[in-house]
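PROTEIN DESIGN WORKSHEET
SECTION A - STRUCTURE
LENGTH: 142
TOKENS:
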């Protein structure tokens, strides 16, 4: 038997894990994407293919005022479209989608407050440092 501290074993079963956070523009192009260690997409090519596929799957969705949930490529993704930007938070199929939705809503609400409800592609690109900091404060290493 492995010598694993008890607190670490418990954390595996109680701490929600995020696989990735994606912020894509209306064309499915990357504004900011963070892939964490739990995500199986390790190469840039695999990540871009995933981003294109999830954009294609969700671009016609009406998730404009509330988040929507899909099961996609062995994960649960919650997403919302805000203006010309789509936000995604993905966890494993075993994650609680309500927790993932709370993370997504926390991110979008935080950015709306920071940017005075002006959450759009241009604003996010011009303030990339704030965008990274906000995500890092909400999600700690996935």
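SECTION B - SEQUENCE
RESIDUE ASSIGNMENT:
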């Amino acid at each position: 038997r492995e010598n694993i501290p008890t607190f670490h074993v418990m954390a595996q079963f109680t701490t929600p894990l995020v696989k990735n956070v994606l912020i894509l523009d209306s064309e499915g192009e990357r504004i900011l994407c963070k892939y964490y260690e739990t995500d199986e997409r390790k190469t840039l090519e695999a990540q871009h293919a995933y981003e294109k596929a999830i954009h294609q799957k969700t671009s016609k969705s009406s998730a404009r005022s509330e988040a929507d949930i899909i099961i996609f490529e062995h994960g649960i993704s919650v997403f919302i479209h805000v203006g010309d930007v789509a936000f995604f938070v993905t966890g494993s199929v075993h994650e609680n989608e309500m927790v993932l939705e709370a993370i997504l809503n926390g991110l979008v609400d935080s950015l709306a407050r920071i940017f005075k409800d002006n959450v759009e592609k241009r604003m996010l690109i011009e303030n990339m440092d704030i965008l990274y900091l906000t995500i890092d404060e909400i999600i700690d290493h996935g």
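SECTION C - NOTES
The helical segments are 6-14, 44-58, 97-114, 121-126, 128-138.
The mean pLDDT is 87.
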